[in-house]
Design brief:
- By secondary structure, the chain is mainly alpha-helical.
- The chain is 52% helix and 0% strand.
- The protein is globular and about 50 Å long.
């Protein structure tokens, strides 16, 4: 019996208590995807605002499912808020503030002060066809596109997430920058267990780093070893909330069709937190109210799986939005 087959059998045994309640009580994953996207669109009103919840992830989830485009009024409202925030960043920069080394965390707007904020923005812009490297005359990737040693970073940017999403965001759109410094640092930062630790978010963080490295998995032996080690660790963990489960789904879909069967196991596991009445996702307690963050992450994870099984580009691979640039 192969390692992955054995893993599937064990994980299926864990999921059975959820699934055997009654077959008709387990929602279809695609129905859950569409309904959670509806929940996001209806709940984030009148339009998204720049930020990690009710902002860029909401835009990306709907855009990658083909539910909205740049012409949609809901997206246009968000783009207006993006420009408002960027004008504030421009003003602070003209006054001599450096976003790479702000005198305090509160100097720049809360939704646009970390490298990960700009990376999140780049992904959402890419999902509706805008290249963050040339957005309204600005190169938004310049904030994070060059690797900076950790001892030279502001405290806001010291997490491994900043490096992982630098790779993800840079590779989402056409670019000619060398990413090896990021890859080398990420590989050097892996723990002997296979994880990339970030406090209690170890599962989420490790899954996100796998997402970043996945595009190098087939061609780089060191990356393959690191990712395999991380997957071995992840497969032994208990996924006790929708967010960590969602990140694992995105990681597996990033690795391609060979991991589709395994991704489906986690998709089915994710559905235990789906609320059929509202269309949103709850947290780990079934009595919890619908959680916007859980719903956004659950929705885009289902979109990632939907794109995989339908032969589309990966969730964060925006080459379908920039086909001419990728062909040149």
């Amino acid at each position: 019996m192969g390692k992955f087959t054995a893993f599937l059998l064990i994980l299926t045994m864990l999921i059975v208590p959820v699934a055997v309640q009654a077959e008709d009580t387990i929602p279809d994953w695609e129905t859950a995807m569409y309904r959670s996207l509806d929940w996001i669109y209806d709940s984030v009103t009148p339009h998204p605002l720049v930020g990690s919840v009710g902002g860029e992830w909401a835009v990306l989830a709907l855009a990658r499912a083909g539910r909205v485009t740049a012409d949609d009024a809901w997206v246009q409202g968000w783009l207006t808020d993006v420009e408002r925030m960027l004008l504030e960043v421009d003003r602070l920069t003209r006054e001599g503030h450096n976003i790479q080394h702000p005198p305090s965390a509160g100097t720049f707007p809360s939704g646009m002060r970390r490298w990960t904020d700009f990376q999140r923005l780049a992904l959402a812009l890419g999902s509706v066809g805008f290249n963050a490297a040339d957005f309204n005359g600005r190169d938004l990737t310049a904030v994070y596109s060059t690797f900076v040693s950790v001892d030279e970073r502001h405290a806001l940017n010291m997490t491994i997430n900043a490096d992982a999403f630098a790779l993800i965001a840079l590779n989402a759109i056409p670019h000619e920058r060398d990413s090896m410094d990021f890859i080398d640092w990420i590989l050097a930062s892996q723990n002997p267990t296979g994880t990339w630790a970030f406090g209690r978010l170890e599962i989420d963080t490790t899954s996100m780093v796998v997402q970043a490295l996945a595009q190098y998995y087939d061609d780089n032996a060191e990356v393959r070893m690191a990712v395999d080690l991380a997957l071995d660790w992840l497969r032994r963990q208990t996924f006790s909330d929708p967010e960590s489960t969602a990140q694992m789904i995105v990681a597996l879909t990033a690795l391609g069709e060979d991991f589709a069967e395994e991704a489906l196991v986690y998709v089915q596991w994710l559905l235990q937190w789906f609320d059929e009445e509202s269309g949103g996702f709850r947290r780990s307690n079934s009595d919890d109210m619908i959680d916007p963050m859980s719903t956004e992450q659950g929705a885009y994870a289902l979109v990632a799986y939907w794109r995989l099984v339908n032969g589309m580009t990966w969730l964060y691979d925006m080459s379908d939005m920039f086909e001419e640039a990728y062909e040149n």
